[in-house]
Automatic annotation (TrEMBL):
This is Uncharacterized protein. It comes from Panicum virgatum. PANTHER family: PH DOMAIN-CONTAINING PROTEIN, RICIN B-LIKE LECTIN EULS3. CDD domains: beta-trefoil_Ricin_AtEULS3-like. It comes from the Eukaryota. InterPro entries: Ricin_B-like_lectin_EULS3-like, Ricin_B-like_lectins. SUPFAM superfamilies: Ricin B-like lectins (SSF50370).
Length: 287
């Protein structure tokens, strides 16, 4: 298996998390050549520099499995690698966003954010957990950055952000899983059909080894950390072509959907150990 996964231990931030967590760069659509950084304990946008650890951010997701926003999206904190400071909500709307020393042992809602859409593939809003209509906005400043505020979402370029890994390989659709063997997914009711993707939705189609969309990667690494209610390790099913993973149904919607797979970001909707115990499904390796 690819080694793109957290190694359990004690992180520099303190507390049990990944010692080798990947770091991210954060930038907005208006000035893609600048990244979010910390300067003199303030948030700024500065020219992109991979060697500058003040531009490297940890995405702390330890409470993401149990805390969601009103749309069901998982929360996270952005913690600066060089300083240990976390991005904190402003005191009031339309006021500057602040930084605070991150304490992984405390549950501090003021440092919890959520994403709109797939920020890794397209630009979107980095928004407050409790009020997703307000998100991070950059106001142009001098040559050394911009002031960061919370404003109501209007779709402006300074409100539109991407969060990408500094490790370029992890930004590919399969996040480094390209070399893994593939499998097909089929149901006991008719073993001549396999799960595929058609027009962006999950379908059953006559089994065809030449249909690349019927090839799936079974990523078992999440099972090292997450179990279902019966104690079975969970796994993710990732499409070889699109890099999307099968996601469990949400709310009253009984249908599964697809979501961009992020092997560094644990999402309980991607674990399918319990789902397999209910539905008789076969998973068979492709030759």
């Amino acid at each position: 298996m690819s080694n793109f996964w957290w190694h359990r231990g004690w992180s520099p931030l303190g507390g049990p998390c990944g010692e080798q967590q990947p770091t991210f760069k954060v930038f907005c659509k208006a000035v893609e050549g600048r990244c979010l950084a910390v300067r003199d304990d303030a948030l700024v946008l500065v020219p992109t520099d991979r060697a500058d650890e003040h531009q490297h951010w940890f995405k702390d997701t330890r409470v993401s499995l149990r805390v969601k926003d009103k749309e069901g999206e998982s929360v996270f904190s952005l913690v600066n690698k060089a300083t240990g400071l976390a991005v904190q909500h402003s005191l009031r709307r339309y006021h500057p966003v602040r930084l605070v020393k991150f304490n992984p042992e405390d549950f501090d809602e003021s440092v919890l954010w959520t994403e709109s859409g797939h920020l890794g593939r397209g630009f979107g809003c980095i928004r407050m957990m409790h009020d997703i209509s307000f998100g991070l906005d950059a106001f142009p400043g001098d040559d050394d950055g911009a002031a960061l505020f919370l404003t109501e979402w209007t779709g402006g370029d300074f409100q539109s952000w991407k969060i990408l890994y500094w490790n370029d390989q992890a930004n590919t659709p399969l996040a480094g899983l390209e070399a893994e063997p593939t499998c097909r997914i089929y149901c006991k009711a008719d073993e001549g059909f396999s799960v595929t993707i058609c027009n962006g939705t999950i379908r059953l189609a006559p089994t065809d080894p030449n249909d690349a969309y019927q090839h799936w990667i079974q990523d078992e690494r999440p099972g090292n950390m997450i179990k279902d209610d019966d104690g079975y390790p969970v796994f993710a099913l990732v499409n070889k072509v699109t890099g999307d993973a099968i996601r469990g149904s949400k709310g009253d919607d009984p249908f599964t959907t697809l979501v961009q797979y992020n092997p560094f970001y644990l999402d309980d909707k991607l674990g399918h150990g319990a789902w397999l115990s209910v539905h008789p499904v076969g998973i068979q390796r492709h030759p």
